Amino acid sequence: MQSLDSNKNISILGILTAFTIIIGFLENLIPLPLPGVKLGLANIGIMLSIYILGFSKSIYIAFLKSIILSIFTGNLIIKFSISLPATVVATTIMFISYKLLKKATPLSIGAIGGFIHMNMQFFVIKTLYLKTTAIIYLVPYYSIISVFSGIVTGYITYKILKVLEQTILSS
Amino acid sequence: MKKYIKIFTLTDIIIIIILCLLSLTPFLYISHIKYNKPTYLKVTIDDRIIRYNLDNKIINLDKYNKNMTIEVKNRKARIVKSDCPLKLCVKRGWIEHCRESAICLPNKVAIQIECKDSDIDAIIR
Questions:
Q1: Residue B120: partners with Cβ closer than 8 Å, 6 or more residues away
Q2: pTM of the model
Q3: Alpha-carbon distance values, B35 to A73, A131, B75, B124 (Å)
């Protein structure tokens, strides 16, 4: 992506943050068969910012998303302590893999992000709250699901990026 | 359909396969740990509760005035013989896992596999 001038940059940062938070709030309304599984649609905004804005602004969005979403959806301390490390680590690793793997499309970047996010959540829950190894029974199922939901969000990001390239970013 | 497959590059497919394999690795670890090992056979006769260990043996309930026989083999248990009309407890077959049971209502006899409690009770979300 070509670099944008700073005014445009800031407005895109605001739009992406608002988009991330609203999508992250609304996706709680989509029913899924397993308890605690979300599609991870909020990841779309973070991936878009990785592709458009670069690393430091993506970390801003990750911070704001985990703080504001945990205020909105209740259970502030627990949700915040689980979601903040997961989101920040997932964003960092997604950015690294976006830089390293030139041929990887958003599909696999999203899959990596979903996988890291899910496993980091399990790691935090294991170290802070449920100090048993029994939790490892759940990990394989949840991380397979997270890989495939990551592919879905990556596909949506891919489509949005294609539209953005033709409209906003080319002008 | 072909249109959707064409989006995936070779790198994508390799990454996704690696991630799927990585998420299956905990199964290797799970096979080594065993929670909730079956430890006792609990036999309830009328109001009396008797616990047996799971070594191979044949338990005859004649001394409690029940015409029944219980067999324990390879850490599994079953009711071999009973004089109740429907023989549901005999048809239940082997029981081996935690809290599985075979019950004979007419004779008021129940057998159940008991386990030592693990360190968590339940996981609630």
A1: A130, A132, A134
A2: 0.67
A3: 35, 15, 16, 19
- Burial class (CB within 10 angstroms; exposed 0-12, middle 13-18, buried 19+) of B41: buried
Q: Do the Cβ atoms of B16 and A147 come within 8 Å?
A: yes
Given a cut of 80, whether residue A171 has pLDDT beyond it is: no
The CA distance from B14 to the nearest CA of chain A, in Å, is 9
Helix (H) or strand (E) holding A151: helix A139-166
Asked casually if ipTM beats, i.e. exceeds, 0.85, the reply is no
The contacts of residue A163 (CB under 8 Å, 6+ apart) are none
CB contact under 8 A, A137 and B30: yes
Question: Which of the residues A141, A142, A143 would you substitute to probe the B interface, choosing the one with the greatest number of B C-beta atoms within 10 Å?
Answer: A143
Q: How many angstroms separate the Cα of A75 from the Cα of each of A43, B5, B45, B48?
A: 21, 41, 49, 48
Using an 8 Å Cβ cutoff, are A41 and A50 in contact?
A: no
B15 contacts in A (CB within 8 Å)?
101, 104, 108, 111-112
- Percent share of chain B, pLDDT over 70: 82
Nearest to A144 among B9, B12, B20 (CB): B20
B1/B91: higher pLDDT: B91
Contact across the interface for B24 and A108, Cβ inside 8 Å:
no
